Amino acid sequence: MKTKKAKILFIEDDPTQLMMYEAQAKIKGYEVVSAQNKEDALKAVKEKKPDLVFLDILLGKSKGTEILKKIKSNSKTKKIKIVVLTNFQKQGLKNECEKMGIEDFLIKSSFIPKEIVDRIDKYLKK
Amino acid sequence: MDIRYTILIVFLGNFILGLFIYQKNKTKLVNIFSALVAFVVAFWALSMFFYVKPIFFNSEIWIKIVYFFVMMMPISWGYFFKVFLDLKKAIIPHLIFFISIILIAILFFTDWWVVKVVEKPWGPETIVGPAYFAVGFFIILCIIWASFHWIRAYRIARGIKKMQLFYVFLGMFIFSILATIFDVIIPIATGNSQFFWISPFFASFFVGANVYAIARYRLMDLRFIASKVYSNLFIASFFFLYFYALYILMNFYFSGVNFLFFSFFLLIFSFLFVLILFPVLEYIQKSSDAIFFKGFNFRKIISNLLVELSQFNELNKIYEILNKEIQKFLSVENVSFLIISPIQNSPVLKISKNKSFGYFSLVNKKNIINKLQTEQNILIYDELKDENIKKEMLQLKLKIILPIVVGEDIVGLIALGEKENGGGYSSGDISLLEMISNQSSVSIYNALLYEELKSLRKNLTSKIDQQTKNLQKKAEYLTRLLEKRTEFLDIAAHQLRTPTTVIKGFLSMIVDGAIQTSKQKEEFLKVCLKKSIKLTEIINDILRASELDTEEFKLDLKPVDVNIILEKVYNTKKIQQQRNKDISFDLKLPSKKLPKIMSDERYLEQILNNLLNNAIQYTLSGFVNIKASTSKDKKKVIIKIIDSGMGIPKKEQEKVFEKFYRAENAVEIFTDGSGLGLFVVKKAIDLHPGAKVYIEKSVVNKGSTFVLEFPAIK
Questions:
Q1: pLDDT for B347
Q2: Between chains, do A61 and B501 touch, taking CB under 8 Å as contact?
Q3: Which of A88, A90, A112 faces B504 most closely, judged by CB atoms?
Q4: Sorting pLDDT into bands at 50, 70 and 90, what band is B19?
Q5: Which runs of E-coded beta strand occur in B171-313?
Q6: Are B199 and B185 in contact (CB under 8 A)?
Q7: Which residues of A touch B506 (CB under 8 A)?
Q8: Where does the pLDDT of residue B254 fall: very low under 50, low under 70, confident under 90, or very high at 90 and above?
Q9: In the predicted model, is pLDDT for residue B358 greater than 60?
Q10: Do A109 and B671 lie within an 8 Å CB cutoff?
Q11: Interchain CB contact of B501 with A (< 8 Å)
Q12: Is A24 on the interface with B (CB under 8 A)?
């Protein structure tokens, strides 16, 4: 597969869910990295230079939107494609994220892990 | 016709005055004695007439009758003074009576007083004996006695009484001086007593003054009479002089002048008369006013008042003007105004300029109020007959209460105290006051309406402001409520989606065959089960929280056996925790059974479950214990949930019972807590009367102790 080398970063604080998405992505042959908090996430973005980031919004103490802002405001990382993957939705949140430049806004519970991972190629081709 | 016939006028006048004062109040002693004095003077005058013109009997008999009535005077006068000055203990009048009787006996049965009567060219002349001088001395003593008492009474008298005393004394003074001149000085100096018949005229002054004083001042106003006499006298003099001048001119210069010229002259003279008549009349009137009504020009006062009043529509200002005017013209000590609002029908303003007088209130003066309401007329203390009203006015130190009437409503009162000089109010004063009240009533009414309008506007504005504020507050509250509800739904959705995502994801991977090893498959299924349980808990929490958050919600409180509930909750949890080897889990019940409490079983279980779930979730190793006991006074059941978990930071301990609040350190280790557990506990406990929940102790990384307290049922 052409996209086998693509590097995917999951930013997710719940280890169970992280394990689930990692497992699914690995099956599809992607290179997977993960981060459970803001500091790790920013570090991973800088050092690992992922092709695509799945970003959760509620991350314990920190907010996904803050991480999004940081990545998009840094000229070195702003090209990185980001998909918001969360169960948290509130009025204006999706709009706010889209303004900062995201590929998609997905509600976790609406998809099974396979459906999500299947979309990765589409996002990378854009 | 003999001029001495005029003495009959004195008889008639005094007789009528006597009848008048007696008619005025037949029961009052002072009126009876005053009338007696008048009758005595009347018959003195009548007998004097017969002495001069003895139509029957002779002058010697008549002179004795004249002197009889003269002796009657100290008697009647003595008693009049006794009652008029209220000298209850005085015995002098009785003494006067006794001596007078002796002197009358001397008059009739001896010739020590009247020796004989001789005919002189001018009429009868009486030769008097030594007793005559004794009588004179006696009368002087009587006058001294009366004067002594009069001075004493006059000094303490106030108001109308002072005025009455003044008139009585004036009458007495004029009478005694003139009588002395005509009855003693002239006869002694000239050797004949031909003018002594005039004395009864002077006695009329005395009678007139007495009657005037008793019959109340409103009968007539001396000042008014004096001013009329003055102006009429001058007008008559003017007419007389003018035509007398014409007469002289005609006699000396125009006798024999031709008729045509004479007619022409008369025409000019008439024309001149018309021309100067009115200026002269006006001048006389003015000078009369200047003398008798100093500063009392009604027209001027009223027109000034109207001009001043028309400039203001504020009550305070109007009172100030009225106060100033009234004090200026009447020199009254206390002027007060009580203004009754026509709309509120209650006293709204009380004003008094005089500090010593203070404000007055009619609250308890129901007699005054009744009288004012029924008659809407001026109340004058000295004229009132109703003793109750007088008493009330005396309490208020008021002499006059004048209602200010508009239409049929009393809008206010002008209340006056005593005059500064202690004098009474004359009819001139009263009519001035009435005029002032009439003229000012409309101004006051307008001012009242103006004030009413002002306060109405003020009230309205403040009311609208208040309502606007209330509406704003309500809108803010509703907005906040809506925000909270939306937030609740957003978070609830998140909490429900999280375990769903995991269950759905894991199961899909198993079905898809993405999981190869059976060990991993088993691991995944276990997670699914755990998340299903969690999902149930979250659904319960959300439902309970939503239920408890409505204000109408009430628990179904019944006596509940805590022992059974505790065992049940403990056992369920124990099974779930069986494989968790890191935590010891115990229930410690006292040896004696716990008393029952008032609670709702479902909610009590929920409370305990939520507290236990928290304790277990946030304790990675150590223990979770339930310890139940009865308080020392046996009035409370105390349940403690003690753990050796991560604890709650001190500053957050108060907030943990809030909806969706999760302590900072809680999110680090347990990510799918609903944030509703303690909120549900708190809400449910608040619905138990007398129960409470609190954190007894919580230390970070050492553990927490949550306490539940319920009142025990006896």
A1: 47
A2: no
A3: A112
A4: confident
A5: none
A6: no
A7: 20
A8: low
A9: no
A10: no
A11: yes
A12: yes
Judged against a pLDDT cut of 50, whether residue B351 lies above it is answered with: no
Complex ipTM: 0.91
Per-residue pLDDT reduced to its tens digit, B476-501: 988 888 887 787 788 788 888 989 99
Find the CB nearest A24 among B486, B498, B514: B514
Q: Residue B480 to residues A89, B486, B560, B569, B660: CA-CA distances in angstroms?
A: 19, 10, 38, 37, 16
- The residue written with tokens 């004395």 in the block is B199
Residues of A in contact with B527 (CB under 8 A): 16
**DSSP codes joined into one string, B602-655:** HHHHHHHHHHHHHHHHT-SSEEEEEEEEE-TTSSEEEEEEEE-S----GGGTTG
* Token pair for B396: 């208020």
Contact B664 A61 (CB under 8 A): yes
Q: Which long-range contacts (CB under 8 A, 24 or more apart) does B35-40 make?
A: B36/B76, B36/B79, B36/B80, B37/B73, B37/B76, B37/B77, B37/B80, B37/B206, B37/B207, B37/B210, B38/B14, B38/B207, B38/B210, B38/B211, B39/B14, B39/B15, B40/B69, B40/B72, B40/B73, B40/B76
Q: Which of B502, B512, B672 sits opposite A114 (nearest CB)?
A: B512
Contacts of B505 in chain A (CB under 8 A): 17, 20-21, 24, 112-113
Q: How many CB pairs under 8 A join A and B?
A: 65
CA angle B265, B269, B272 (to 5 degrees): 140
In this complex, do A113 and B498 lie within 8 Å of one another by their Cβ atoms? no
pLDDT in tens, B175-195: 877 887 777 777 777 777 777
Place of tokens 């494609």: A81
pLDDT at site B353: 45
Q: What is the mean pLDDT of chain A?
A: 89
For residue A124, the distance in angstroms to the closest alpha carbon of chain B comes to: 23
CB contact under 8 A, B672 and A113: no
Whether the pLDDT of residue B37 is over 60: the answer is yes
Three-state secondary-structure class, residue B586: strand
